[in-house]
Amino acid sequence: MKPMPRAPFGGISEYRKVGIQSSVESATPHRLIEMLMDGVLEKIQLARGCMERKEIARKCEAIDWSLNILGGLYGSLDMEKGGDVARNLANLYDYMMRRLVDANIENDTAILDEVTRLMGEIREAWVAIRNHG
């Protein structure tokens, strides 16, 4: 039996993985956090599209991935050194995680939009710190 021919774009996925891996390896800690924030935003948009197309399993996976990344952001906070800023971010991350669960249960794109807006504002502030720091 002959092996199945590879899809013409099969290498793109592998190329992308290598690109992401090299970006992570060369990134500063500040840039890594920014990449995680971008990942949350990307997965929420994926979930939104899946929600609109009624692709329930993929929607759940995308929201779960968003929750995992948010959990990582939450876990990266240094409450001792970060003081009020870290506590406020912890509260925001916790709120966004709860809202993503609500969005998943209710299939509500408006909730996804709310979390996208909040994460976008946090990301903007984070980038501004890098650009002015």
In words, what does this structure look like?
This protein has 133 residues and is mainly alpha-helical. The protein has one domain (29-132): Flagellar protein FliS (Four Helix Bundle (Hemerythrin (Met), subunit A), Up-down Bundle). The protein has helices at residues 10-26, 29-52, 56-75, 79-106, 109-132. Helix 2 (29-52) packs antiparallel against helix 3. The model is unreliable at 3-9 (pLDDT under 50).
Total number of distinct structural domains: 1
Structural class: mainly alpha
Helix content: over 70%
Give the class-level CATH name.
Mainly Alpha
Radius of gyration: 17 Å
End-to-end separation: 61 Å
Question: Layout of helices and strands, plus pairs?
Answer:
Layout: H1 10-26, H2 29-52, H3 56-75, H4 79-106, H5 109-132
In short:
The protein is mainly α. It is 85% helix and 0% strand. The protein contains 5 helices and no strands.
List keywords for this structure.
0% strand; globular; 5 helices; Four Helix Bundle (Hemerythrin (Met), subunit A); mainly alpha; disordered N terminus; 133 residues
